[in-house]
Write the structure tokens for this entry.
Amino acid sequence: MVKKKYWQKVFVTFLSVTFLLVNSTGADSAITFGKMWVSVLQSGLGVSSPTSFHTGTNKTFTASFPLCDSDKGFPCINKLLVRKLGAKTWTHMRPWGKVAAKKNCQFCKYTTWESIPDKNLPAGGEAYNWSASGFEEVSLSASLSGYFTGDPNSFGTSDGMTYQPTGLGVEILDAFRNAPENEYEVHLKLGLFSKSLSGWFIGRLARPSLDLTSSGDLTISGESILLQNAGSEINYSDLPPDWIADLVKECIPLSYCGFESDPQSWNEHTPWQSIGYLANNEKTMKTFSQFENIFGNKAQNQYRIWAISNFSDWVKPISKIGNCSISEGFLGLVSTNSTVFSSDPPIVIDEALSYRVGSTHLRADGSLNSGSYGVSLRKDLAKCVWGDQFIPEFIGVEVAYKDGKPEVIATSFKSTDSFYNFNASGFHYSIPTLSMKNFKSEVQPLKVSVSETATTEAIAKISPKSTVKKTTITCAKGKVTKKVTAVSPKCPTGYKKKP
């Protein structure tokens, strides 16, 4: 066997694709031909950073939140709580030292600064490590990123400067760059900067719960999740033709993508290379769909994560959700453990919040990849989307495939001051559409089979003319009564069944 002396790696990023092009070098290197590696994992990570910095060329900044007991102002990290999965009692974690973060951006100026609220400049500090007895040590990074105008040499002052924060990111990591298998609750004090948050956020956590008070206190809780990386080594001759056509359209000229030859000419004599799709847009979802049959049912590897973030496509102004006119501000959070997800926020179709995701049917360890999906929706929007008959307890998630039957998943519900938090789990992958809808007691959530080979999007509806026998009960709360008709009717929370 010939030893490889070393590997030369070249990273090239364009549009929706991050490429890792690998070529072996050296006189005695063993070079592979005729195959390539394609992988897909849409991380959903945005702008969380353990350090604060700004740039002079494109005039951007990232403000890492300081601790609230510092003198830098808002926003800040107030506290971090942790508990084992399934436990009821929270444990307070304590900050004990700053994160030793790499500062390898040559055109970035790493520094800290105080908040200037009237100029909209958030406080810039540094992230800390946190510990608690019986739990793994973690780092917590929370940051706001944005743009500024004025002289970069005057950054951090009011002198002719304006600042516009747009992106929020929060992430928890252990020493191995994974998130421990725990549930965490992060408390942030945003103050007036809560008004800088707009649009939807994407979460990489299970059973998320969100709340934002009028004073700007943001609370985020949830469990870490396992993400599955889909990938496979493929003969050039077996590459999907539509994928090659897309690649050629995006790579003009070819040097823009780091290729030495036209993808249409790749054959058994073309050297091995690797292409990874990581970006948060529809190209990543499309690539997963194109390669799903090649990837097979099983993921290649997995890692655990706890994070939320927003990114440009999700913070652009939105005037309506369905037929609901909305005011500016933080609309909600969508969280899933899927490998890929729609780059656009949920849309309203027939009074249902619909969202598309995709993942392998099995995890990297061979176990069933059980899906999780959570939506935290501002209360005024929830009441508008689902109308006058909106009862949170009747909201469920319908999982729909083109080639399979719909699966209706019972959904847990939690109310905070300003958000309704809905969570569903236990559905199977490959590329379903998830519709969160108000069943209005017409049907009780059922478990039905879903074809393992289903691959494409559709929205199937549960017929209200079900042949299953339903009964009606009367529920009372004080002087208010409600009739509930279902297969197995139950009274809403706070109501009691009348004899």
The two ends are 81 Å apart (CA to CA). The mean pLDDT is 82. The longest strand covers residues 138-149. Residues 37 and 233 are 4 Å apart (CA to CA).
